[in-house]
Amino acid sequence: MARSSTGGPTGKAPGRGRPPMTERRKEVVRTEIARTAVRLFTERGVSGTTGDDIARELGISTRTLWRYFPTKESCVRPLLTTGLEFMAARLRACPPDTPLLEYLEREQAFEEGAPDLGEPVADLIRMTHTEPALMAVWLEVHHAAESVFAEIIAARTGQGTDDLSVRVQAAILNTALRLASEELAHATADGREAVPAGVGPFVRTVLATAAQGLPAFTTAPPRRRD
User: Fold this and answer.
1) Considering the entire predicted model, what is its pTM?
2) 218 falls within a domain
3) How many domains does the chain have?
4) In terms of residue numbers, what domain contains 192?
5) In a structure prediction context, what are the per-residue pLDDT tens digits for the chain, which is 226 residues long?
6) DSSP conformation letters of 70-96
7) Residues 29 and 86 both lie in one domain
8) Which one, of 205, 213, 133, lies nearest residue 171 by Cα?
């Protein structure tokens, strides 16, 4: 299938022009779109940015943009899914006889291949708290990730993905990762050194807290001394 000068499909019959875009190249383009969308949203706000604006900034047609994403808000999705996809891959790589937390505590298990998306992701996550449309995308991404985490946990425990225990564990893991991402993003904006030991150790600490379950439900609070 031939492509236009912008890299998008033109709808012409196969065999004319250059070969179809590879999946790898498509992901690169999607990431470029996401970064551009975040920059414009940061500068102008979501309501002040149109799909035409994003396409123009990239030098592509608006029609090509909509081939990749159905709405302007969904353009940011690749920057929100990369970290979750990385975590899912790390969890799948864990040997069956090794507890997940123990595996993640090994530096190389967490650091190797970690995505480096930089400031655009932090900007985006912060904006989810002021832009409802972006918050919707953020929550949709995590909702989709939860079923992936459930599959991983179910495979390790021999339970079904619809088992309540599996679903609760997947939900706790998912929420812990979302809160970790939000804390890191806000710490960057505030200039706080929330992760002096690095992102990896910080996320592992958050997951260790999640692994403790709900201590507030099982342990009585200390008595106050008057």
Assistant:
1) 0.80
2) no
3) 2
4) 76-213
5) 333 333 333 344 444 555 567 888 999 999 999 999 999 999 999 999 999 999 999 999 999 999 999 999 999 999 999 989 999 999 999 999 999 888 887 756 566 666 665 688 999 999 999 999 999 999 999 999 999 999 999 999 999 999 999 999 999 999 999 999 998 888 877 655 555 556 777 788 888 888 888 777 877 777 766 6
6) SSTGGGGHHHHHHHHHHHHHHHHHS-T
7) no
8) 213
